[in-house]
Write a structure and sequence with these properties.
Helix 2 crosses helix 3 and helix 2 packs antiparallel against helix 4. This protein is flat. The protein is 68% helix and 0% strand. The protein has one domain: Acyl-CoA Binding Protein. The protein has four helices and no strands. With 90 residues, the chain is an all-alpha fold. The mean pLDDT is 96.
Length: 90
C-alpha cells in the first residue's frame, strides 16, 4: 500500500475517534490533513470573531513547512496514537 492510500485509510479511521478527543488533537489533525491535501496555507487568516476558523487556520499554518509526504506520515502517526489511546482508555 502506498503512502497516499494509507493516508486515505487513516483519514477514514480518524472519523471514528471518540468525541472525547481533545480540540488540540483535532486541530493538529486538521492542520496536517490540510497540509497533506492542499499544501501551504492559501487563504488569509479569518477575523477575530471567527474563533473556530481562526484556530483551524493557525493549526494549518503551524505545519506549513512540511512536505505533503511529511504531513501524511505525521497524520497517520497521530491517528494511530489517538486510536491506541482511545482503545487503552475504553
Amino acid at each position: 500500500m502506498g503512502l497516499k492510500e494509507e493516508f486515505e485509510e487513516y483519514a477514514v479511521k480518524a472519523k471514528t475517534l471518540p468525541p472525547s478527543t481533545s480540540n488540540e488533537n483535532k486541530l493538529i489533525l486538521y492542520g496536517l490533513y490540510k497540509q497533506a491535501t492542499v499544501g501551504p496555507v492559501n487563504t488569509s487568516r479569518p477575523g477575530m470573531f471567527n474563533l473556530a476558523e481562526k484556530a483551524k487556520w493557525d493549526a494549518w499554518k503551524a505545519v506549513e513547512g512540511k512536505s505533503k509526504e511529511e504531513a501524511m506520515n505525521d497524520y497517520i502517526t497521530k491517528v494511530k496514537q489517538l486510536l491506541e489511546e482511545a482503545t487503552a482508555s475504553a
